[in-house]
């Protein structure tokens, strides 16, 4: 018998799931990002603190993301566009889910690669056509997974990851978003 090690502590996740069943208030998390305008359409966004398990929490390190637009949009291209961060989030969340589910099911992964493509008609954000939405028209995720598993087992891994993905859920279901001036 071989031991599966995908680097995911599934027991800790299962223990947390059991503990939170009896303490739903502790499961209420608030994730935060703070963005600062630099110049033009260039901004930086930092993430460090969040609320969870009933108290303020902090990542080990502050992470900074740079957003801008490409030169073909008359910008300086100091970073990826904000809508591309959605693709980053989706890919990261689904990939984490694949690793976690594989670990829980005893499937050894050798490699996992996902390609996320978002088709976007920018006439919406430019106000060129009021019938065109501002966001993606559609998003496609394609996984290439090498693992000690059949194609059906790999497809089931991806399906379960999709089912449990917070980012997939946020992108595919209406979410209340409030924008205000402090």
From TrEMBL:
Domain of life: Bacteria
Gene3D superfamilies, per the entry: 3.30.300.20
Pfam families: OsmC (PF02566)
InterPro entries: KH_dom-like_a/b, OsmC/Ohr_fam, OsmC/Ohr_hydroprdx_reductase, OsmC/Ohrsf
Protein name: Osmotically inducible protein C
Annotated organism of origin: Actinoplanes lobatus
């Amino acid at each position: 018998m071989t031991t599966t090690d995908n680097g995911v502590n599934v027991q800790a996740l299962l223990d947390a799931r059991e503990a939170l069943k009896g303490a739903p208030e502790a499961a209420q998390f608030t994730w935060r990002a703070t963005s600062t305008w630099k110049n033009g359409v260039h901004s930086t966004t930092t993430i460090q603190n969040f609320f969870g398990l009933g108290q303020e929490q902090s990542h080990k390190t502050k992470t900074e993301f740079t957003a801008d637009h490409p030169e073909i949009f008359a910008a300086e291209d100091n970073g990826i566009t904000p809508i591309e961060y959605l693709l980053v989030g989706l890919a990261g969340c689904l990939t984490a889910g694949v690793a976690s589910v594989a670990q829980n099911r005893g499937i050894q992964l050798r490699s996992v690669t996902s390609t996320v493509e978002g088709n976007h008609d920018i006439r919406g954000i430019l106000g060129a056509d009021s019938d065109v939405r501002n966001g993606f028209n559609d998003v496609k995720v394609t996984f290439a997974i090498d693992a000690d598993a059949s194609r059906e087992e790999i497809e089931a891994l991806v399906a379960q990851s999709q089912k449990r993905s917070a980012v997939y859920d946020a992108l595919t279901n209406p979410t209340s978003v409030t924008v205000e001036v402090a």
